[in-house]
Write a structure and sequence with these properties.
This is Sulfate permease. It holds the Pfam family STAS. The protein has about 550 residues and is α/β, with parallel strands linked by helices. The chain has 2 domains: about 15-230 and about 240-360, no CATH class; about 415-539, Transcription Regulator spoIIAA. About 60% of the residues lie in helices and about 5% in strands. The strands form 2 sheets. Strands 4-3-5-6-7-8 form a 6-stranded mixed beta sheet, sandwiched between helices. It has a two-stranded antiparallel sheet with strand order 1-2. A hairpin with a 5-residue loop joins β3 (about 415-420) and β4 (about 425-430). α17 packs antiparallel against α18 (about 390-410). The longest helix has 26 residues, at about 250-275.
Length: about 550
């Protein structure tokens, strides 16, 4: 309990935290079942994810609000990754692979923790994350729409499948549609008019009661069916060594999403409530949680931004709600699992559909379009790539596009040309006279070395005889940049042009000396350009 209350300001408000835990259980039960279905796993795999993994994460994390659980992106990734290994969803081999996936993810998380790689969350670009999660949401919505309509499809690719759904709309099962749409309407209404109530649970209980009372299961409305009772028992996945290796790329993708989404969410709440978050500790907690999950027949767990927000809204300031939730779900699966058999699948699909629609951040996409078109197109490529090419291929392509975009922008750094003006001041403008100050506002490296050479050469060709390089913003020079600088100096000397460096840091001087550029003249003060001007007058 000391860890759960560590660093809290004032005493722990146990009644409030326990109430929040019951609310969390009310959210987790229907959503975890729905996400297990998305992942192609039995419902109990989602329920088990709310017991041992959630409890372990609560005990070992440093965040007071972050909730560890299956979520839509994780479920969609599991489904797409395991199907790619040629396993049929729901088959015994598929389920064993899912348990093993949790253990492989645990190893990756723990390796990230061991090598202190929590900082990598800062390097996952927002457009990639926005597009990737939106693409997963589109993929999930497609599968849930089929359940709500009560139809099946045979197409294996995304757009053909969409067309098949459209052509089969007349074949939709009326009662399935009514139950699914009504479930969605109840959740949306409660979210708007009574946000404190657990909308998904209320909607699911109501839908189950209606289906049971009207006997709709005998009229084609699919229900969940038998759910095994009893607490999870230790289990080691029975798969081959080659299958273990095949799970590694998928584990990296799952961990990358959790690393970005989970750590950024945890950091936001830590900053909001004024406590310190240790990103590496969170990685260890995710690793240990997935060890517990993989060994207790649970699906992989990541972070849930929606449930974290719900806990924060209740006023929770510790991980005690996760402990309470784990206990409530444990009691449910141990003694009351029979009631789950009557849950209508179309209602579960409606609950998941409402949850994942919020993952398509249209506002953020519009903002990217308005602020930086290149990043908008990266997000769009990732969004479309997930359902069309597969999640792993899409995220690799998006990362490559992000890297290309970074290099493209770095190859055109901010530069400025200053010339002597009135009263000894220097103003922006073209070369007028023998002296010019050239400001280069980036590190000098392979991507922009050509720009540096061409712009300095252009200044010399325009008549400058003294070029003062303002190096204040040059934080680093790689070997290509050093070669460009050496070649530029040699070319300027042939033209009779002198290059001096102003405002270079001591670190930059040492680096340039290391590259053998010891013939440069350095100036430390802001008067470097004026000094060069005086020398040019004497010359």
């Amino acid at each position: 309990m000391t860890r759960l209350a560590a660093g809290l300001r004032g005493p722990l408000n146990a009644p409030r935290e326990i109430t929040a835990g019951v609310t969390l259980a009310a959210l987790a039960i229907p959503l975890n079942i729905g996400y297990a279905q998305i992942a192609g796993l039995p419902p109990v795999a989602g329920l088990y994810a709310a017991i041992a993994p959630m409890l372990v994460f609560a005990l070992f994390c440093s965040s007071r609000q972050l909730v560890a659980s299956p979520d839509a992106p994780i479920a969609a990734l599991i489904a797409s990754l395991l199907v790619a290994i040629a396993a049929r969803p729901g088959s015994p081999q598929y389920v064993e692979l899912a348990y093993a996936q949790a253990l492989v993810c645990a190893v990756v998380f723990l390796l990230f923790y061991a090598f202190k790689l929590g900082f990598l969350a800062n390097f996952l670009s927002e457009p990639v994350l926005v597009g990737f999660i939106a693409g997963l949401a589109v993929e999930i919505l497609t599968s849930q729409v089929k359940k709500i309509l009560g139809i099946g499809t045979t197409a294996e690719r995304f757009f053909p499948e969409l067309w098949e759904i459209v052509t089969k709309l007349p074949q939709a099962h009326p009662w399935s549609v009514v139950v699914g749409v009504a479930t969605m309407a109840v959740i949306i209404a409660l979210r708007r008019y009574a946000p404190a109530l657990p909308g998904p649970l209320i909607a699911l209980v109501a839908a189950t009661a209606v289906v049971a009372w009207a006997g709709l299961d005998r009229h084609g409305v699919s229900v969940l069916g038998h759910v095994p009772s009893g607490l999870p028992v230790p289990h080691w996945p029975s798969i081959t060594l080659g299958q273990w290796a095949a799970l590694i790329p998928g584990a990296l993708a799952i961990c990358a999403v959790t690393l970005a989404d989970g750590l950024l969410t945890a950091r936001r709440y830590a900053e909001q409530h004024g406590y310190r978050l240790d990103a590496d500790t969170e990685l260890r907690a995710f690793g240990l949680a997935n060890v517990a999950g993989g060994l207790t027949q649970s699906m992989t767990v990541g972070s849930s931004a929606s449930r974290t927000a719900a806990m924060d809204a209740t006023g929770s300031r510790s991980q005690l709600p996760s402990v309470v939730c784990a206990l409530v779900v444990a009691v449910l699966v141990a003694f009351c699992s029979g009631v789950l058999a009557y849950l209508p699948n179309t209602a579960l699909a409606g609950i998941v559909a409402v949850a994942v629609v919020r993952l398509i951040d249209a506002g953020k996409l519009a903002e990217l379009w308005r602020l930086r078109r290149s990043e908008f197109w990266i997000a769009v490529v990732c969004l479309l790539g997930v359902p069309v090419l597969g999640s792993l291929t899409a995220v690799v392509i998006a990362f490559l596009l992000s890297a290309v975009d970074v290099v493209r922008r770095a190859s055109r750094p901010g530069t400025a040309t200053l010339r002597p003006g009135e009263h000894g001041r220097y103003v922006r403008g073209p070369v007028q006279g023998p002296l010019v100050v050239y400001r280069f506002e980036s590190r000098l490296f392979f991507a922009n070395a050509g720009t540096f050479k061409s712009e300095i050469t252009r200044l010399a060709e325009a008549g400058a005889r003294w070029i003062v390089l303002d190096a204040e913003a040059i934080t680093d020079v790689d070997t290509t940049g050093a070669a460009a600088l050496r070649e530029t100096i040699a070319a300027l000397r042939e033209r009779g042009v002198t290059l001096v460096v102003a405002r270079a840091t001591s670190g930059l001087r040492r680096l340039l000396d290391h590259y053998g550029l010891t013939g440069l003249t350095y100036y430390d003060s802001n008067e470097a350009a004026a000094a060069a001007h005086r020398e040019s007058d004497h010359g």
